Amino acid sequence: MIIVPALLTDNRETLIEMIRISESFTDYVQIDIMDGVFVPSRSVTASDLRGIETSLKMEAHLMVNSPHTYIDEFKEVGAFKIIFHFEATKEPEMVIEMIKESGLEVGLAINPETQLQQVEDLLGKVDSLLFLSVNPGFYGAEYIPGVLEKARVLRAARPHYRIGMDGGIKEDRLLEIKGAGVDIACVGSAILKAEDPKVAFLRLKKMINEDP
Fold first, then answer.
1. If you write DSSP's letter for every residue of the chain in order, what string do you get?
2. In b/e form, how buried is each residue of 140-151, taking b as 16+ CB within 10 angstroms?
3. Is the confidence at residue 212, as pLDDT, over 50?
4. Is 121 a catalytic residue?
5. What would the pLDDT profile of 11-44 be if each residue is shown by its tens digit?
6. Is 44 exposed, middle or buried (0-12, 13-18, 19+ CB in 10 A)?
7. Which residue of 25, 28, 79, 167 could cross-link 60, Cys pair, CB 3.0 to 4.6 Å?
8. Catalytic pick from 32, 35, 48, 183?
9. What is the value of pTM for the model shown?
């Protein structure tokens, strides 16, 4: 399992600060993008990333309607992967194809209420599936434990599939999440809102590395 810091803010200066902090302990982050329509909150946009020099690998988690309209701008600002929500479009296969045609990796995300059967036909067309274990849109949203069972089911059916989980992940849940077969844990407030984000990240990383 790997820990991926999830950067969520509506302020460019705060985003720059989060990126600089993250550079001190990781090489890979997720940028949360929210339009205020698909989810209640708004966040930074691709325009806010322009001109920010960083060595970090960045994936964009699009919590937005019409995700296909965001592909080109996030490619331009250096994202290597775009994750979009199944619930945000009536044409997920079109979005998948457009992301692939842009040369980027593609991830599919599903909200807590969405069932695995609804996306079964899409799993072979994307690079990963991201389970939202909160109702998306805010740092510190309430964790929904039932989502973990979906991860277990998917792992049993597809032993080598890339499975991510995002939302409400804290120290006391991390080993259970790893045990369910999740191999990408996207962690927001437990790292970026910690008194010392580097210490918090390294503590989480140590937990999963020491667990047999």
1. -EEEEEE--S-HHHHHHHHHHHHTT-SEEEEEEEBSSSSS-B---HHHHTT-----EEEEEEESSSGGGGHHHHHHTTEEEEEEEGGG-S-HHHHHHHHHHTT-EEEEEE-TT--HHHHGGGGGGSSEEEEESS-SSSTTPPP-TTHHHHHHHHHHH-TT--EEEESS--HHHHHHHHHTT--EEEE-HHHHTSSSHHHHHHHHHHHHHH--
2. ebeebeebbebb
3. no
4. no
5. 999 999 999 999 999 999 999 999 999 999 999 9
6. buried
7. 79
8. 32
9. 0.95
Q: What is the mean pLDDT of residues 55-60?
A: 98
Q: Is 166 designated active site?
A: yes
Cα of 49 vs its chain's centroid, Å: 17
All domains in the chain, ordered by first residue: 2-210 (3.20.20.70)
pLDDT in tens, 123-175: 999 999 999 999 987 766 789 999 999 999 999 999 999 999 999 999 999 99
Joined together, the tokens standing for residue 30 give 């997720």
What pLDDT, on the 0 to 100 scale, is given for residue 172?
92
Tokens of 141: 């949203």
